[in-house]
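Our consortium's second objective concerns turning raw sequence data into structural hypotheses that experimental partners can test. To show how far this objective has progressed, the report includes one record in full. It was chosen at random from the queue rather than selected for favorable results. The single chain below, 474 residues long, was entered without modification.
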Amino acid sequence: MKKTVVSIVCVSLLLLKTELTAAQQLSLKQCVETAINNNLTVREAGYQAENDNISYKLAKGNQLPFISGNINHGINQGRSIDPYTNSYADQQINFASYGINTSVVIWNGSAIRNNIKQNELNYEASQLDWQQAKENLTINVILAYLQILSNQEQLTIAKKQVEVSRSQVERLNVLNAEGAITPSVLYDLKAQLSGDELNVLTVKNTLENTKLSLAQLMNTPYNTAIQLENITEQQAPVLYDGTPDNIYQAASQQLALIKAADLRRKSAEKRLLAARGQLLPTLSFNGGLGSNYSSVANRLELINTLDVPTTNYVTVGGNKFSVFSPQSNYLSQRITYGDQLSNNFNSSLSIGLQIPILNGLRARNNVNLAKIAEKRTGFEEQSAKTQLRQAIDQSYVNMNSAFERYQTLARQLADFTLSFKAAEVRFNAGVNSSVEYLLAKNNVDRTNANFVAAKYDYLLRSKVLDFYQGKQLW
């Protein structure tokens, strides 16, 4: 019963380990997507694009009418102006006023339109910068990914070298115990075994460092158990199809870095036009609506008209008769809130022309700053193209060199492999010395490691050229 339980536990642990290993295996696509989602540089570029988008929207808003409203309520004590009659009143007055005003620029030397275009181009350039940040991160992830695969393959080779040396040491231990060989032969192979085991440790350390680099690019915790899917082709690599001129032409059209530099130069041109527009007069249309209220506003209503005697008289036939004068009687009534708003309603329309004469040389200096920005962005665009051409030329030379190295090492590996097999047969037969055997083994081991490194180096160089042309990298 105990054996059964132990077996079940062991099988369960084995299955769990297998599931965890499968779950930790990542594809190149997963690594790239994880890096793009987590990378801080990519996020900062995205935030900058959002910021420039809002600046673009603000610039577009400048062409819309400016509309504002105002509401005022208050109390005046003592001698103050009655807002209803505009005369002095020595009493408490409750007052209110309401208004709405609008202003729209009809023309200002196309400064607003050019400013909108400037911010639009800046926003498009920021989006391309965001894309370029993703592409830069993608190529770095791919390079790290391929470096891990290269180190994994070299680790496999190093372990096989250890197994070959260990099998020889085991065989020589038997022969040495029988006195069939000199002890120095055994010790030479033991030293070789130690050297191969040390090489395994070195390759393991290099592999873990490349895994750490990939984890840092993805901004995820470092995990020693991470496994990557193999993406290398089974067939032998062939020479890259393309010339530096063709690659540069494609890169000039596809690479976000170059397109962003072109957009920023165009944006600087629009900035200069917008700054020059500030030197010209501004024609604007203005309008407004308003009304007000006063608590002391009164209205007199006629009640009747009576004849009232006066102190004057007239003489008729020697007799004096009093003179009567008509007198109207009024009733003072407070004007209601609604009637005042209706009675006091007013509107205004105007067209204004603002002519800049002197504003502390601000407009003129803004033009000079815009000229400098235009020159700088033009130089940056040309510099980016020059650096791109130089980088492509260098990458193409490196690619050709890596391919030639790969071909040479492939032939050398085939020759050393045959040489080692022959040396191994002769050593096992006791014909060759340990020195000859170890020399043949070291030659094939060193060449095998160099061959793997050359193969992946060529793949890395090819991926860089694909990156410049905007090709799919996985």
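The partners drew two points from this record. Confidence is low (pLDDT under 50) at residues 1-23. The chain has ten helices and ten strands. Both points have been shared with the crystallography group to help prioritize constructs.
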